[in-house]
Specification:
Elements lengths: L1 H8 L2 H4 L11 H18 L3 H11 L6 E3 L5 E3 L4 E2 L3 H8 L3 H10 L1 H18 L4 H9 L3 H25 L6
Length: 171
């Protein structure tokens, strides 16, 4: 898991909406992001490595939205679809506009909401972990299958990056 988190950290400048810097991101940034991922994972009982992989697959960033072909909008790093806004606002005890603002501009809030959506998807999958991961994206078979292929590709890419850089190896 550590190697996946470290390899995913290489994509942090994009996730955080900033330009990639020579030499990567600061240790403080990696620590803060890792802490957010671990806290959300613990709260919702999902593997932190899966959250890191989904962040990389989704490809969103702080302060940015993406339009979908169905007319909806995905928000922030974990590309939280706006259809979830009312439920997230209720969970957080806030208004829909305030929840949207947090998802858009607060990395930890976005990751927490994504972990909650993932947990809900996993719970709906009747014990089939990968079905639940696919449902994070869509319940429609063709979109779910395409997403799972993207997840697998990202896992393999991160594994290869971790092994080529020595990330996660203990001395």
């Amino acid at each position: 898991m550590r190697s996946v988190l470290l390899a995913a950290a290489a994509t942090l400048p994009l996730l955080l909406g900033g330009p990639a810097r020579a030499g990567g991101v600061s240790d403080a940034t990696v620590t803060a992001v890792t802490d957010c991922i671990r806290a959300a994972a613990a709260l919702h009982r999902v593997p932190p490595g899966v959250i890191a992989v989904l962040l990389a697959v989704e490809g969103g960033s702080i302060g940015r939205t993406s339009g979908n072909t169905n007319g909806t909008v995905d928000i922030g790093p974990m590309q939280i679809n706006e259809i979830h806004l009312p439920a997230i606002a209720r969970r957080w005890g806030t208004s829909v506009p305030a929840a949207r603002e947090a998802l858009l501009n607060n990395f930890c809030a976005n990751v927490e909401a994504g972990a909650w959506i993932l947990r809900t998807a996993l719970d709906s999958a009747g014990g089939d972990f990968w079905e639940g991961v696919g449902r994070y994206h869509s319940r429609t078979e063709v979109y779910k299958d395409r997403y799972l292929r993207q997840v697998l590709t990202q896992v393999l890419r991160l594994r290869d990056r971790a092994s080529s850089t020595g990330a996660g190896r203990t001395p």
